[in-house]
Amino acid sequence: MSAPNTDVRSLVVTALPTPVPADEYDGCPVTGLLRLLGDKWSMLVLALLGRRPYRFNELHRAIGGISQRMLTRTLRGLESAGLVLREVHPTVPPSVGYRLTPLGQSLLGPLSGLADWAVDNEAALAAARRPVAAATSSGPNRPAG
What we know:
By secondary structure, this protein is mainly α.
C-alpha cells in the first residue's frame, strides 16, 4: 500500500473566517455539490449509472416511486453539472440514453466512501438521534408533568 496523501485539503484543516460570510458559503463548491446531491434521487441515479448506461424508460423502471417528471428534472440537474451525459439514439422512435461522464465517474469513489461511512455508523447515528428526538418531542413550552 502507498503512503497516505498528506497534501489533501480537509474540512478540519482548512481555515474558515469567523463569521463565515453567507455569500462565501453559498459560493463554496462543496455547498453546491451537497445541494445537487442532497435531493431524494440524485445519489441513486448516480449509483445506477455508475454500474452501466441506461435508457430513460429502463432507468425509470429501475427506480421505484420516481415520477417521469422528477427523473427528468434529476437527470437534467446532473447533466447541467457535468456528471451525466444524455445521448439521443437515431432510432424510430428515438431513444435517449444516459451515462456518467468521466467527471461523474470520478465522483463515485468519494460517494462510495461516504456511503460506506453511513452504513458503518448507522447504529451510532440512530442512537445519537434518540435523545435529541425525545428532548424536542416534549417541546420547550410544554409544562412539566
